[in-house]
Every structure is written in structure tokens, then in C-alpha cells.
Amino acid sequence: MTFEAFLWSLTQQESGGNYGAVGVWVGGDRAYGRYQVMGNNIPAWTAQHYGKRLTPQQFLANREAQDAVVRGVLGGYVKKYGYRGAASAWYSGNASLHMSTRPQPGGPPIKSYVDKVMDRAGTYTGGSTASSSYTDSGGTAAVKPKLSSAELAEQYGLTSALINSSKELKSLFGKAVSDGWSAARFQASLKNTKWWKEQSSTLRKYLTQKHTDPATWKQNNSAAAAKINALAVQVGLGNQISGGKNSKLLNDAVYKVAALGWSDARIKDWLGGRVSVHGDIMWGEAGDAWDKLHEVAYLNGLKYSASWYKKAAVAVTSGRGTLSTYEDQIRAAAAAKYSSYAPQIKAGMNALDLAAPYIKATSSILELAETDVDLFNKHIAKAMTSKPKAGAAGGTQTPLWQFENDLRSDPLWRKTNNARESMMTTARAVAKDFGMSW
Predict the structure, then answer these.
(1) How many CB atoms within 10 Å of residue 167?
(2) Would the pTM count as exceeding 0.70?
């Protein structure tokens, strides 16, 4: 936004551009002229900004005085409060009330007024907001006040702060002032500068707003920071990224969103790449992906490195990959490992479920809790990976009876109650064969 656009919009809001407009009486006073200046303010404001103390009636008849006053007073408000605050100060006398919904005497609520001024300013197409010919109350030509450097900058659509932020802009502005360029010529030359050409329209808008409307600029940055913090929680960077060592990360992210116009998807991808493993866990969406992939790998008897899980979780969180893609990758590896069960695994079954008969037998014979027996048990692993005999159907490579017999050759079996009872039964049978019994 430029000051000219702002002033034009406020003019439309106040009087529709009528220098002769007179407002209704409100609280013992009324507003005068194109910008609806309250009568009580006119003597002091004209003395300060026009160089001549005028009465309300003289002010009403003097277009140049009206323009001089509004540029001086409203321009000061903009520098101090930004555009929204300036509109509120002009309308209500208080810049901090720009979000207030309370109505004003004889007018709309303050926020409604400010919103209309700001919205309309966006439709400004250029041109001067001031009259080109003025007369004072006596009909004689008035002396045109000399504009300050700051006021000239505003006529060119910029501010002194923005101009001074760039050596190239400062040099161009100096030449424009020296040679008396029109605003149109200055804008044309501005578009040929490196400052203009080497920056996106989003970045130019960001930098311009920073220097011309700092209040709105700060509000936009705060909104971007809130959005980024929410995305940071989603991807797994924790509850906040604004404190301590992460403050730079937040500032970088805010700049990318507010200045460069990054989309939510792009900033989420950028944040996702900075997710870390905390001990043996991850947080947020990354943590969900981390846990799910660990679960699928365990259920299929596979182990991956922490770096593999992190890479996969970050890819899922940032949108560069999907959870199903990595699950399919795990299942493909499981199908290759347990080739006799490949069709079932590819269809979505887990190897651990397919090993259920072997797990139950191992739990019963070796007297282990079923929850302690999995695909990493050496007996289960051997049975599940053994090859079926030629011509035999898949899944028949290790008959259950053979598996149970093999379990009894494990030294662990000798320490079980099953083993002791079995040995006692055998001993009784032998003793009976020799004619002894007990």
C-alpha cells in the first residue's frame, strides 16, 4: 500500500472527495472538508501544517489548506501507528482501537471503518489525491507549502525508511527529487532497478510493508509464526520452536512464509527435514510414522537402522513419501525372507501371524510366555525360512510334529517341567520293564 492509495481511500470514506462537505453536529462540533477535519482542530492544525491559522469556514474554502493538513497530520499518524492505526486515529482519535467493534457517534464501528479504508485502498489505480488548483478564502492564490523529503517519498509511493534501506533506491530517489520527477516517472524508473527485478513481488510487498506499515507487518509475522508453530508440532519438532536455539529456525520459517510466500506444504517439507530423534522416539506426525514402521517391521521379523526409520519418518511427514510406500517396502523384504509365505505377506498378512502354530508350540514345550516368542526366536526363524521339499506346497516346509521334536533337543527344554515329567515317565516305563515300580 502507498500513502496516496490510503489517502484516496480515506477520502472516499469521509466525503466521497468533496472539498465542500460539512458534517452533522456531534457533541458540539462538526467536521469540515474533503477529509472531514473536526472544527476544533482546524485553527491549530492549519497553523502547524499550512503556515496560516484558519477558521473552519476559511478552511472549508481552501483546498490547499485541507490537503496540507491531512498530509501533515495523517502522514504523522502513518509513521507512528501504521496504516490501520492511522485510520483509527483519524476516525476515533485513538490508534489502538482499530479492532474495536464499538460504534462511533453518527458513524460505523471503528473496525468496520478501518477495514473499509484498508480494503478500498487496494483498488487504487493511481493519480493524485490532491487538487491541482487552490484559492484561499479571499479568492487569491495560496502559497503551496514545501514538501519535506518524507512527503516527497510518500508521493512516490514509498517511505524514507524504505528508500534509505537500499543504496540503489536512495540514489534513485535523490535524482528524482533533484530533477523534479513525477510519481509516474519515478515508478517507471523504480521498475528498472535491480532492487525491483531481482526480488519477487511477494518479497517486494513484504519489504515495502515493513517500512510503510510496520504495525500490519508485525501482525502478519505473528500470524505466520503461529501457523509455523502449529506445523512444527505436526511434523514432530515439539510444542514450540521459538525458544532458545530454535529461535533462528522460527525466524527463517517466518521469512519464508511471509516474505517469500511459501505454501503450507512447502514449509512443512522444510520443517520436516529438521525433525530429530529424541532418544529412541520421534514426536508428532514423524513419531506416528516412526512407531508404525517399527511395528510393521517387527511383525514381519525385520530390523532396520535408526537412520533408516528417521529418513522414512521425515519423508512421510514432509510429503516426499507415504507410509504405505514404506510399509510395502518392508513387506517386500519380508516376502523375500519368508519366501514360502510370500503370497500371504504380499496380500497384507504379517509373518508373525503366519508363524502362530510354531509360536504356540514353542510357548507350550519350552514353557515360555507367547508374548516372549517372536520371529527372532531361533526356532521360529529356522522353521519360517526353511524351504519346502520339491513339489510340496508352500507353508509345509517344516511339519509341526518335526518342529516340536526339534524343540525338545534345545537345552532349555531339559529345564522345563515338561522335560522332567517326560523323563520321569520314561524312567517308570524302564523300571517297569525290569520288574520294578514305584
Answers:
(1) 9
(2) no
pLDDT at 314: 81
Cα–Cα distance for residue pair 384/352, rounded to 1 Å: 10
Q: How far apart are CA 201 and CA 182, in angstroms?
A: 23
Could you give phi then psi for residue 21, rounded to 5 degrees?
Answer: -70, 140
Q: Do residues 373 and 363 make contact, with C-beta atoms less than 8 angstroms apart?
A: yes
Amino acid at 431: A
146 Rama class: left (phi>0) / alpha (psi -120 to 50) / beta: beta
Sort strands 37-38 and 103-104 into parallel, antiparallel or unpaired.
unpaired
pLDDT, tens digit, 9 for 90 and up, residues 171-213: 888 888 777 776 777 778 888 888 888 777 888 888 878 877 7
CA gyration radius, the chain: 40
**CA 58 → CA 26, 138, 145, 151, distances in Å?**
21, 9, 17, 24
CA distances to 5, 421, 422, 435, 438 from 431, rounded to whole Å, are: 112, 15, 14, 6, 9
Name the grid cell of 311. Answer: 529418513
- Flag residues of the chain having pLDDT under 70: 126-159, 182, 238-247, 266, 269, 272-274, 276-283, 388-396, 419-438
**Mapped to the 3 state alphabet, what secondary structure does the chain carry?**
CCHHHHHHHHHHHHCCCCCCCECCCECCECEECCCCEEHHHHHHHHHHHCCCCCCHHHHHCCHHHHHHHHHHHHHHHHHHHHHHHHHHHHHHCCHHHCCCCCEECCEEEHHHHHHHHHHHHCCCCCCCCCCCCCECCCCCECCCCCCCHHHHHHHCCCCHHHHHCCHHHHHHHHHHHHHCCCHHHHHHHHCCCHHHHCCCHHHHHHHHHHHHCHHHHHHHHHHHHHHHHHHHHHHCCCCCCCCHHHHHHHHHHHHHHHCCCCCHHHHHHHHHCCCCCECCECCHHHHHHHHHHHHHHHHCCCCCCHHHHHHHHHHHHHCCCCHHHHHHHHHHHHHHHCHHHHHHHHCCCCHHHHCHHHHHHHHHHCCCCHHHCCCCCHHHHHHHHCCCCCCCCCCCCCCHHHHHHHHCCCHHHHHCHHHHHHHHHHHHHHHHHCCCCC
The whole-angstrom separation of Cα 56 and Cα 40 is 8
Residue type, 243: G
* Residue 431 CA to its chain's centroid (Å): 83
Measure CA 124 to chain center: 30
CB atoms within 10 A of CB 86: 28
